[in-house]
Amino acid sequence: MKIEIWSDIACPWCYIGKVRFENALSRYEHAADVEVVWRAFQLQPDAPRDNAPSTVEHLMEKYGRSREATLEMMQRVTDVAAEEGLSYQLERAVAANTFDAHRLAKLGEAEGAGEAVMVRLMQAYQSEGANVADPETLVRLGREAGLEEAAVRDLLAGDAFAAEVEADFARARSFGVSGVPFFVIDEQHGISGAQPSEFFLAALRQLGPQQPKLAMVGGADDAAACDDDGCALPQG
After folding, report:
1. Alpha-carbon 105 to chain mean position
2. C-alpha span between 194 and 172 (Å, rounded)
3. What is the phi/psi pair of residue 231, to 5°?
4. DSSP per residue over the chain, as a string?
5. Of 47, 98, 48, 56, nearest in space to 77 by CA
6. For strand 2-7 and strand 35-40, is the pairing parallel, antiparallel, or unpaired?
7. What pTM was estimated for this model as a whole?
8. Residues 6 or more apart in contact with residue 224 via CB below 8 angstroms
């Protein structure tokens, strides 16, 4: 089974969805047979790289809400995140462009540190108010996730992995993905949103390999046989 997961570092539900999905996968009987592929997605491809506004300001403008209403909405998401063991401080978040952060995540994958880099980026965005469009911030986060500083600086000085990130965007469009997190299973089944872990587990069991069930051929139910209780003679 192959599961492709689209997410954006700027999306608070994506980190929650990641934790919930991985919780389900850890309990899935055939987890060893599951290939998980993380795909990049940008909710705001036109977000600024420089002088980015706070996420609070961005959401106030986008939805025409007051600061108080926006903070209340953020608190609800923060409360859900806390239930999954995540400590959010969304009021500190910066609504910066995530393209280079996605490129950094691709570098992490290539270096065998994809999980560490993705988690570090999500933590930094959702909990630390980090500007993930800032090159020096990305250098620091990459280093903290185990990457060589020189490799990160080389990445940011050029366009390495830009094509791979763009390919993820194009593949998302081909499936009609317009929001994240979004899960595609074997290119046939889609799951939208940060569903509860039990939902993910049920989906894995439903769509994964099925245990064959025998259709019993007619005959006496009490024919001679042995089981855990011993051997018995047929009745009659």
Report:
1. 13
2. 17
3. -110, 140
4. -EEEEEE-TT-HHHHHHHHHHHHHHHH-TTGGG-EEEEEE--S-TT--SSSPPBHHHHHHHHHT--HHHHHHHHHHHHHHHHHTT----GGG-B----HHHHHHHHHHHHTT-HHHHHHHHHHHHHHH---TT-HHHHHHHHHHTT--HHHHHHHHHS-TTHHHHHHHHHHHHHTT--SSSEEEETTTEEEES---HHHHHHHHHHHSPPPP-PPPPSS-TT-SEEETTEEEPPP-
5. 56
6. parallel
7. 0.87
8. 231, 232, 233, 234
**Where do the domains of the chain lie?**
2-207
- Per-residue pLDDT tens for 103-137? 999 999 999 999 999 999 999 999 999 999 999 99
Return phi, psi of residue 39, to 5°. Answer: -115, 145
How many degrees, rounded to 5, is the angle at CA 102 between CA 59 and CA 150? 130
pLDDT tens column, 163-174? 999 999 999 999
- R_g (Cα) of the chain, nearest Å: 24
Q: Which CATH class is domain 2-207?
A: alpha beta
**What is the Cα–Cα distance from 30 to 11, expressed in whole angstroms?**
29
Rounded to whole angstroms, the Cα distance separating 89 from 224 reads: 68
